[in-house]
Write a structure and sequence with these properties.
CATH topology of the largest domain: Arc Repressor Mutant, subunit A
Strand content: 5-15%
Number of domains: 2
Helix content: 25-40%
Largest sheet: 3 strands, antiparallel
Radius of gyration: 16 Å
CATH class of the largest domain: Mainly Alpha
Low-confidence stretches: 159-165
Strand order of the largest sheet: 1-2-3
Mean pLDDT: 89
Shape: globular
Order of helices and strands: EEEHHEHHEH
CATH superfamily of the largest domain: Winged helix-like DNA-binding domain superfamily/Winged helix DNA-binding domain
Oligomer: single chain
Distance between the termini: 44 Å
Number of strands: 5
């Protein structure tokens, strides 16, 4: 099976996106400022970068890109719950823990959240502390804050226009 890689410049830094013939396999933040060029692209990557660009422009709130990430059964449960968090909303680690096994699972939820390899599409940035504080984000706290404000901005505009909720 072939592997493909591209890079996307975004408002929160460069993203490295990998895929195979059928699925996105990872989206990671590139932490150095070196500009990278695509190594080998395919249709899956092109669709993903188009949808991410639409997201950053405030034109997309849901993704329909096929993705696959390896993980334990528990991690898969957590990532599935993350996918249920609506654009512009946040939930606590406690909320996710209750959904996947009970309050005593909060640390395990935090660990699974941190092992998410598909940033933004699997919205681990939407999980916050029970007290409303921003907590841990592999991409850096400033990115988490930016993503939440970005989503809130476009969700708030829709609410003001009476388009939903």
């Amino acid at each position: 099976m072939n592997n493909y890689t591209t890079y996307l410049k975004s408002p929160i830094g460069q993203l490295k996106i990998t895929a195979d013939e059928n699925f996105i396999n990872s989206i990671f933040f590139v932490f150095d400022n070196t500009e990278m060029t695509p190594e080998k692209s395919n249709e899956v990557l092109e669709i993903c970068t188009q949808q991410l660009n639409e997201y950053f422009a405030g034109e997309r709130k849901e993704f329909d890109v096929s993705f696959n990430q390896e993980g334990t059964e528990f991690q898969q449960k957590v990532w599935t719950e993350l996918m249920k968090i609506p654009h512009g909303k946040t939930v606590s680690y406690n909320y996710i823990a209750e959904r996947v096994g009970g309050k005593n699972m909060m640390r395990a939820v935090g660990s699974a959240n941190g092992k998410n390899q598909i940033s933004i599409l699997v919205p681990c940035h939407r999980v916050i502390g029970s007290d409303g504080s921003l907590t841990g984000y592999a991409g850096g706290m400033w990115r988490k804050e930016w993503l939440l404000k970005h989503e809130d901005k476009y969700s708030s505009e829709e609410r003001q226009l009476g388009l939903f909720g």
